[in-house]
Specification:
Blueprint lengths: L3 H15 L4 E6 L18 E8 L2 E7 L5 E7 L4 E7 L8 E7 L3 E7 L5 E5 L1 H5 L2 H4 L12 H8 L6 H5 L10 H11 L12 H20 L40 E5 L2 E5 L6
Antiparallel strand pairs: 1-6, 2-3, 3-4, 4-8, 5-7, 6-7, 9-10
Helix pairs in contact: 1-7, 4-7, 6-7
The chain binds zinc ion (ZN).
């Protein structure tokens, strides 16, 4: 499943190719993916001005023919991929939506499992939308600080790993990155969120940012089904420290890495290094 770093990499890959291109027409080859697809017609003839990310949503900002700005918001679900092609290339397997640009480029959306979804918004309707309303701060933004996270933790008995994966606390800390961040911060994944000192919370914030930034730089890291915009797989360039390493020696202390299940997800950690 594409995580925050992969989505960031997709945005960074798409923007230089499509910025300031004029959209001619959108062809949807089916009426729904996870949900019913939106009416794309307000975007016909619009200029694509910016592509960025909020949580795991790709936001494409269009200046439309009626003078309005509209935001095409896209979630890749489990297996969604965007490709940019030049010329009239035949639709590939699982291609569901095609965006034709005036200059001859086309943006293709493929999604084998069809858990992706999309919406067309104005700035105002996007900010008040149900997708946006439930989102906490961005992990790489200034408002995600030790002060903020420490305050959120107070009185919380929930396990810290489950806590940092809650999008209303902070967005984009998926299962892999939660395990890696907690290892880096030396915090046991089952420790109650409200039972961690402020200096350790500070270390956790720095670790989350470090792990995500590293993954973005490595080009995204999902285990399967993720292909970057240029078609090359975006696997992590370097190995994980704990994720997927159950039974293997900890890279710091040599103890075997353990695997437990928390909220139905696998957690990997070192009993000696994480307290
Ligand atoms: Zn260890």
């Amino acid at each position: 499943m594409p995580e925050l770093p992969e989505v960031e990499v997709v945005c960074r890959g798409l923007e230089p190719l499509l910025k300031d291109q004029q959209l001619k027409k959108v062809h949807a080859f089916r009426s729904d993916l996870r949900y019913v697809l939106p009416d794309f017609s307000p975007l016909h003839g619009a200029w694509l001005k910016k592509i960025c990310r909020r949580s795991k949503y790709i936001l494409m900002y269009f200046l439309c023919a009626d003078g309005q700005q509209r935001i095409l918001c896209w979630h890749l679900g489990m297996t969604g991929q965007f490709h940019v092609l030049n010329g009239d290339v035949k639709a590939g397997l699982h291609e569901h939506v095609r965006f034709d640009f005036v200059g001859g480029l086309s943006l293709r959306y493929r999604d084998a499992r069809r858990f992706g979804y999309a919406g067309v918004f104005t700035e105002r309707t996007w900010l008040s939308s149900k997708w946006m309303k439930v989102l906490g701060p961005e992990p790489l933004a200034k408002d995600f600080s030790a002060e903020y996270l420490y305050e959120q933790c107070q009185q919380r008995k929930i396990a810290v790993k489950t806590f940092i994966m809650d999008a209303s606390v902070v967005v984009g800390v998926g299962n892999i990155y939660a395990a890696e961040s907690l290892f880096l911060a030396g915090i046991h994944p089952k420790r109650a969120a409200g039972n961690i000192s402020k200096p350790r919370i500070n270390r956790l914030v720095i670790s989350i940012q470090h792990v995500l930034q590293d993954a973005i730089e490595a080009g995204g890291s999902s285990i399967s089904d993720f292909v970057k915009v240029d078609g090359k797989p975006g696997y992590f360039a370097h190995a994980f420290q704990v994720y997927g390493r159950a039974g293997e020696p900890c890279l710091h202390c040599g103890q075997n890495i353990r695997r437990i299940t928390q909220s139905g997800r696998s957690t990997f950690y070192c009993l000696k290094c994480q307290r």
